Amino acid sequence: MKHPSLLPALVFAARVIAFPSYASLAGLSEREFESILPTLEYREPALPPGPQKDPSAKLVNDKAHPWKPLRRGDIRGPCPGLNTLASHGYLPRNGVATPVQIINAIQEGFNMENSLAIFVTYGAHLVDGNLITDLLSIGHKTPVTGPDPPHPAIVGGLNTHAVFEGDASMTRGDDFFGNNHDFNATLFDQFVDFSNRFGAGKYNLTVAAELRFKRIQDSIGTNPQFSFVSPRYFTAYAESVFPINFFIDGRRNDGQLDMDAARGFFQFSRMPDGFFRPNGTRSTEGLDQVFLAHPMQPGANLGQVNSYTLDPTSADFSTFCLLYENFVNETVKGLYPNPTGKLRKALNTNLDFFFQGLNGSGCEQVFPYGRD
Ligand code: HEM
Ligand SMILES: *[C@@H]1O[C@H](CO)[C@@H](O)[C@H](O)[C@H]1NC(C)=O
Ligand SMILES: *[C@@H]1O[C@H](CO)[C@@H](O)[C@H](O)[C@H]1NC(C)=O
Ligand SMILES: *[C@@H]1O[C@H](CO)[C@@H](O)[C@H](O)[C@H]1NC(C)=O
Ligand SMILES: *[C@@H]1O[C@H](CO)[C@@H](O)[C@H](O)[C@H]1NC(C)=O
Ligand SMILES: *[C@@H]1O[C@H](CO)[C@@H](O)[C@H](O)[C@H]1NC(C)=O
């Protein structure tokens, strides 16, 4: 090589060309950001959709939304709800979507209540999405070739660990063990076993409470880096009730999810034939029952197994607004300490949308980048 000094620049150029339009811009150096920005098409974020006019039960596994197998390059991730919506065409089948598409899909396909839909979608988009192109991937792991090990923020979407995705999932492993997003058959066997033991073969709130506790105890005992603080603390409990609230046919409405249906959603991103969405909107109903069966306070292992230590700085169920404030002040601000121009504008717009999901909660909006 005659001009070794050129090498880093060339490799860096390759990395820039490879930058996916849906990857998060968090954590890039100023130099990286400046080279990537001109390759991205800026899209003004559209307003979040409101509630549906008619949320009654209806056939959602319909002719217009058939399940289809994955094509090469289609992205799926840790969330069986979004994976299923993509595999039925409620979301783009490639697994890359705008927040508005996601909100419309989770409302139309599963009847998620409007403010929760807004809150989780913009929460995820702020930390895992591309705020310039307005795109979020439901879990990519595309390695970006480059001189450095791939940046954690470049490989990610919803697979990104610790900002939204977290430990002690029911059917996905902890990030520490190397795969936090694919369906894990051993863990699903445990899901079935718990449903047999505590639900006579169905997943219900009694099972949810026992399995939630078991997954936490497993992580405490096996994952030295186990973390169970806000926001994961909240999403772990919420996701334990989602299968009951969203995956049960709206004509049955009995709180008992059968194992064929469960496997369809968790493993194959597939609704049962003839599936009706719930009858009316649903949110986190049942969460209290799951929590109160085995109340756990937020905390983490301290680098060794069985060293779970409470973290009084984390939000918990008695300090809900702190979840919001810490997420904005620390998580989002930590990812984007000093944004300017279009990026700052997009952050502020998406932070406003995120806060709309808390309308009526009594929390006060915070403005880490000033008001526009
Ligand atoms: C009605 C809509 C939704 C349903 C039914 C749903 C369902 C679920 C369930 C059951 C899990 C737990 C998986 C497990 O423990 O094995 C989960 C995980 C997850 N969901 Fe969703 N979800 C929905 C909407 C969303 C939205 C809108 C987002 C973000 C845009 C999202 C992001 C995630 C992520 C990142 C995880 C992984 C958490 C982890 O395991 O660390 N979900 N979802
Ligand atoms: C699935 O989870 C089990 C239990 O945590 C673990 O031992 C196993 O290695 C995981 N399998 C894969 C393929 O990741
Ligand atoms: C779950 O199923 C078991 C077995 O049928 C039953 O005893 C329990 O009451 C059910 N729990 C709920 C909340 O439906
Ligand atoms: C949905 O609930 C309403 C009452 O709120 C009821 O009239 C209707 O029959 C239910 N639909 C289905 C499919 O069960
Ligand atoms: C917030 O809720 C109030 C009623 O509770 C409603 O009038 C207002 O339009 C809502 N604002 C947003 C931004 O959704
Ligand atoms: C978040 O930052 C705002 C200032 O932008 C401040 O008023 C508020 O107290 C902070 N909240 C927390 C929990 O740090």
Q: What does this molecule look like?
A:
The longest helix has 18 residues, at 205-222. The radius of gyration is 21 Å and the shape is globular. It is 41% helix and 4% strand. It is mostly helical. It has one domain (15-356): Chloroperoxidase-like (Chloroperoxidase, Orthogonal Bundle), CATH 1.10.489. Mean pLDDT is 93; it is low at 6-16 and 144-154. 45% of the residues are buried. The strands form 3 sheets. Strands 4-6-7 form a 3-stranded antiparallel sheet, with no helix packed on it. A two-stranded antiparallel sheet has the order 1-2. Helix 6 crosses helix 7 (205-222). The protein binds protoporphyrin IX containing FE and 2-acetamido-2-deoxy-beta-D-glucopyranose (5 copies). Residues 78-82, 102, 106, 110, 112, 120-121, 124, 158, 164-166, 169-172, 235, 239, 242-243, 246 line the site of protoporphyrin IX containing FE (HEM). Protoporphyrin IX containing FE (HEM) binds next to helix 3, helix 4, helix 5 and helix 8.
Which terms summarize this structure?
372 residues, mainly alpha, Chloroperoxidase, 3-stranded antiparallel β-sheet, two-stranded antiparallel ribbon, 12 helices, 41% helix, binds protoporphyrin IX containing FE, binds 2-acetamido-2-deoxy-beta-D-glucopyranose, metal-binding
Q: Architecture, according to CATH?
A: Orthogonal Bundle
Largest sheet: 3 strands, antiparallel
CATH class: Mainly Alpha
Number of domains: 1
Domain Heme haloperoxidase family profile: 63-298
Family: Belongs to the chloroperoxidase family.
Signal peptide: 1-18
InterPro entries: Chloroperoxidase, Chloroperoxidase-like_sf
